[in-house]
Amino acid sequence: MKIKFMTKRWAVCLLTSIAVFSACNDLDFLEEVPKDFLAPQNAYNTKEGISQGITGLHFRVRNDWYFGEELQDVGAIYKGLGTDIAFHGEDPNSTRFLCNYVNYLTPSSEYVKEYWDRPYKLVQQVNLLVEGINTADESLFTPEERNALIAEALFFRAYAYRHLVSFFGDVPVVTETIDFAKTDFVRDPTTMAYQLMEEDLTFAIGNLPNPGSEEAPGRITKGAAYHLLTEVYLMQHKYNEAVQAATHVIDDFGYQLMTERFGSNPDVFGSGDAYSDLFAYGNQNLKENKEGIWVIQFEPSTVIGGSNNRWTRAFGPAYFRMGNTPDGKPAFRGELVNGAYTGYSDSLGRGVSWIRPTNLSAYTLWEGNWNNDIRNAKHMIKRDFYYDSPGSAYDGQKIDFSKYPSSAGRDPIRDTCQYIYPYFLKFADPMNVLDNEATSGNGASYKDLYAMRLAETYLFRAEAYIGLGELDLAKADINSVRARSHAKPAETGEIDIDYLLDERARELYGEDCRHFVLRRTGKLIERVRKYNNNPLNPGLNIQDYHVLWPVPQDQIDLNIDQQWTQNTGY
Fold first, then answer.
1. Could you give the CA distance from residue 121 to residue 1 in angstroms, rounded to a whole number?
2. I need a surface site. Which of 374, 407, 468, 499 has the fewest CB within 10 A?
């Protein structure tokens, strides 16, 4: 349920109704008692119902932020658009996809509203579930089981408030179910939200299972709670506490950076390594994979609750749209399905260029390690594309737009931003099209996705050490990640927050929410202006006040009994 406010008209109607019925001695006959349908009063009074409630929290996060649905703007921004690492490739001058901060971030924007509504829906869901668990019959659970369920729910409340505080600053801190029209919410100071996050995660750490003891893949463990708590401490610049929390993750639960090959090794592009194995279909939940801390679960649509992710669609180039070869033949024949050629490649999927890497992500970050850093290997970042055009003199040749005659009328923006650009193949699922063969899966995949991975924990701790001025310790953590990738070790003199941000981009491109990272390190404005090379709007017209997003105007307007001040600049 979204936090929503009541207009004066409806408030008057409610008061009138109360007055009309106040003469009755007994209003019990007006109270609905649901018996044959689910409602908040009866959804969580059984073990099965509470279990479904926990599943519902996972489902919401998956669908809201990991492309469980085709969310386009929301999911794409969450994974990098509008930062130093990516811009919208399909149409760099679009009015959508955060191509222009001034025009896009307005109080009336439907996308800004989604960034407010979705975490609050999660908060309401958590509060309702916790209330249900607390009031459920005592015989349903042991005290330990009850606390474990509450702990998992509270983890998600902290997850939601970390999002709200980062994007909007002061926000209402809601810890109880809202089941009536409330028009006097207060924008509480961020300190209250941080305190709640710390309390929720501390309880979670004390009551969640250890990694390996969780009920099913993807369930929340102590490791995930410590990892999120580390981030919450970093947001507050509590660097000593962040070091301690990260150290628990690194040392206490048997997690390891994967350095040897494991699981399924498809090697579709002719080579592979331990890093590429992390992203191969089916490898995310294997017991031998010691690096995954929290993995978002996807299942084919034939499975109840199944849902695909759209990362191939979002990150992949729209190569199939590029038209003809220089000698006028179709550039891509594609796969043979039901007697016809599709125009799509099963190895590349069907991308539509929502998230195109900046030059920083695609080129600058790899200077000095181009040939040795396995994260830049040809099977991890595909830079060379080839014509699939039997009958053309160019069939099998590398695509080179300089070979086209001027009469071809090529559009260099579309050619290099939408059709062909460096493709981070961690988001592809090559040769694993489970449905819609004629459209190469339509850009969908059922591959599980990392929400938290140990490499990030090392970089969290390095960030904290930089904040403490302990550069040698920060270097050691960064080099733990670099060593796995065969990158040259960093030197102490290189270590600062920008180096850390560069290393995060190399290791975690598209896995984390880059906005969180840049905002808490104070680097959002600077690095967007410096590195976002959207060819039609370099720097994306970002202004100093865009550190925070505007509060949706409808939330201000409907909160009639408590005046809110809009964030600066809007």
1. 5
2. 407
Query: pTM score, two decimals?
Result: 0.92
403/192 Cα distance (integer angstroms): 61
Q: How far apart are CA 146 and CA 134, in angstroms?
A: 8
Place of tokens 């001695």: 25
164 within 8 A of 563, measured Cβ to Cβ = no
E strand segments, 306-389: 336-337, 340-341, 356-357, 381-382
Q: What is the DSSP string of 415-445?
A: IIIIIS--EEGGG--TT---S-GGGGGGG-B
CA distance 71 to 188: 30
Closest CA to 479 of 507, 452, 451, 498: 507
Query: How far apart are the two ends of the chain, measured CA to CA in Å?
Result: 27
Amino acid at 234: L
Could you read off the pLDDT of 169-225 as tens digits, one per residue? 999 999 999 988 999 999 999 999 999 999 999 999 999 999 999 999 999 999 999
Q: Which residues contact 492 (CB under 8 A, 6 or more apart)?
A: 471, 472, 475
Q: Are 149 and 50 in contact (CB under 8 A)?
A: yes
**Strand ranges in 394-547 using DSSP code E only, listed in sequence order:** 423-424, 449-453
Crossing angle for the helix pair 47-65 and 143-168, to the nearest 10 degrees:
20
Which of 176, 545, 459, 509 has its CA nearest to residue 355? 509
